[in-house]
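Supplementary Text 2. Reproducibility record for the structural model of the 199-residue chain.

All settings were left at their defaults, and a single model was retained for analysis rather than an ensemble. We include the record here because the model underlies the residue-level annotations in Supplementary Table 4.
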Amino acid sequence: MQGGAGDVVGGVFVCLFVFLALLLILSILFLITLYQTQKQVKEPNRELSPGLVWLTLIPIFGSIWAAIMVPKLANSIRREFEDRGWGTDVEGFGYIAGMIWAWGGIANLVLSILQNVLQFADLGPIAFLLSLLGLPLGLAVLVCWIIYWVQMYQYGKRLREGQRGYPDGSLEADYDEEYRRPRENEGDDARRDPDRPQR
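Retained model, structure tokens:
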């Protein structure tokens, strides 16, 4: 009987370890995406050094840092778009999904702390109600995290390959007549006007 209970406890620990390892791997891949996207922004346009995205891995502080980081990343990408002469009117730069993810993470952290305090104070029913509230909130945070991740990947790709997604020197970039990318040696007027024909 004791062996069976030990096996269950061991199984729970293995599952918990696998879950935490998977969560850490996904977090690292997500932060690599943010890092690489921010690296595509020229230094004068950055509001945040790319390496600072890794502060998100710090427990508790990382949740607060995410809410500070998201607007800075969005503003950096916006400034890079403006510097390249690309339109920004219809772009969100990941701000909405990122802020819902960041503030939702803070709300989840607060709910978890409250649940533990209420459990310790023998107020189990109230703690249970908070856990019911935390379930849809956690799902919303997860969905917004995935959306934000995809958006940041797409912005990084656009910044790397140009507005139309063509790598530098590719045949597509050379032969697409509607493709406009300001060159480094062209004047400021060409940089500001993306519709101006390139010579």
